[in-house]
Design brief:
Layout (H helix, E strand, L loop, with lengths): L8 H8 L14 E2 L8 H5 L5 E8 L9 E9 L7 E6 L7 H7 L6 H6 E6 L11 E3 H4 L10 H22 L8 H15 L4 E6 L1 H12 L4 E7 L9 H25 L10 H13 L15 H11 L5 H12 L14 E3 L3 H6 L7 H14 L9 H6 L22 E8 L5 H11 L3 E9 L8 H13 L8 E2 L7
Parallel strand pairs: 4-5, 4-7, 7-8, 8-10, 10-11, 11-12
Antiparallel strand pairs: 1-2, 2-3, 3-5, 6-9
Helix pairs in contact: 7-8, 10-11, 10-12
Amino acid sequence: MKRPIVWCAAAAAVLATLTVPATAAPSIDWAACQPEPGDTPEEIALLPGSECATLKVPIDWNDPAEGTFELAVSRRKAQGQRVGVLVFGPGGPGDSGVDRIRTGMSRFSQRLEDRFDIVSFDPRGVARSNAVKCSAALVARQPSPILKNQRDFDATVDYNRELAADCRENTGPVYDHLDTLQTLRDVDAIRAALGEQQISFHGSSYGTLLGQQYAERYPRRVRALVLESVFDHSAATTGEFLDAQAWAGQDSFDEFVKWCTTATTCALHGQDIHAVWDRLLARAGRGELPDPQRPSYPINAFQLSFVTFRTFYGPDWVKLAGLLAQLDKSAPPTQQPPVPTGLTSFSFVTFCRDFSLPVRDYREYAGHLRRLARDNEDLRYPGQLLAVTTCLGLPKAVNPQRDPKRYDLRTPALLINSLHDPATGYNGAKSVARQFGRDGVLVTYRGWGHGSYTTSPCMEATVDGYLIDRDVPHRGKQCAAVDPTG
């Protein structure tokens, strides 16, 4: 499905800026990936065939004279008739693409491993790529996003600024250049270093924002583009952002309740799950609910909501039902967790550079909390609520939400999303599909979970056929749900 290029003087001028530079790009010196501290014996056994390297890139692409840092990259070479390079864009923000290649290749089908050099990287500020480091004791003090008054609001702003200063000191100058507009330039540096005119790109979750913005800037360097669990960067206001995220989480909770109502394997089968949930939230709000991983210590209402939210990624309904049943019968915690020492990673900085979600004061914030509680019976505290409070008081985003320019891709992008995705809701995927227009096709997995490529043979075959043969599915294509509980 290719389209002719309409030539004109203006188009020629634009395309001239997108050609590969005449100067030789740096090459990548690959070596076999080695075991690292923390690798399990099972992970070490998966290393053969993976290659690792570093690539020097500017700290600030807008001012290369500021210096460079080493970006960690990894790959596995095609095992059969090679199509080209497939770059995997990790999610998060904070996921490691190097780990995906070293030990997580089950993410890709054997067909893709046969036909592509599969390449990924640790985004700037993550893992091996000049990771953001902060004082662990300070990170442990992060306030709950369930703010109760103006004093809590002001304390959160002060905390965020203190944490930013600490992280900047412990991380170095890269800390101030962690937005996706910088990362997409890193991706293009990888492409150039590999000697490729074009790349295929598969972005997952937050990595879909990277894919969208790379394709917008470098449309002629994109052979094929898969956006899985599509992150919508168009929510104009804080309210729109929170409402969309809360809707997705509540939808997944509702699906869990439907399953538990009929499934005898549900540990809460026959019980009023909404009543159980309300009891647990109330106990967490009083500091009387234990952390399921560390029962001596308490968790708050937001942490309970977040733990629950994460089980919807699979989804793992059996696990969640057992967890809630266990907590409902649990004894109160007996102590507070110890204060950690040293440094720890804190990769969420990127989000605050990519999104503008301002809140003037507690009164406005309380209005958001009331609306979320009114409109969402159970998950009234979406995980992304922490995204809003973590960015309060910080400098303005350098890559805020906006309407994208026309993509003008040779091959339309393939967008794939679960109908019941807790983190990147289906409505967001439809929004991004509208932004792509004729340059994108949305395929719907009619099931559950965050991620859909490996969920069903239908989805896998659709993505593989698109990436290998550029076989663009028809608009409106859907794949049937597969029971996540077997």
